[in-house]
Predict the 3D structure of the following.
Amino acid sequence: METIIEIPKIEDFKKVNKLAKQVHELHVNWRPDLFLNIDEVISKESFEEKINAKEIFVAKIQDDILGYITINITEKDNPIMRYRKQLQIEAICVDEKSRGKGIGTSLLKYAKEFGKENNCTDLYLTVNKENENAIKIYEEFGFKVKSISYSMEI
């Protein structure tokens, strides 16, 4: 079965939020000091804005939404650094029952092609160090660790 990647419709809001909740719960478990346990991860207003800006895409198999990705493009123009037009993956999610079937890789491929079509210089994302499954997929896809963030509670 073929995975179709497309911009969602407004009526897909509940399904996308259901998926977002799955990933959000992982983050709540990993970082309860940072993440709140909430029911609506993406507001309807934000969802509509992302649709209109073409910053959210869903992965469908036979009209069933099994994953989504949110992105944005940022230009980095600093006089001491090389110019970059960076496609940042803000969130990526695959339904927990559909993981391991290539849906996440399809979303990553789509984001990479979208970046090429928009003359981006690089693809960027951050991942929680506890998310070992995602890290493995990102590394298999070709992502490399470029920086490490540290945090300390005070």
In short: Residues 13-30 form the longest helix (18 residues). The chain has a mean pLDDT of 94. The longest strand covers residues 64-76.
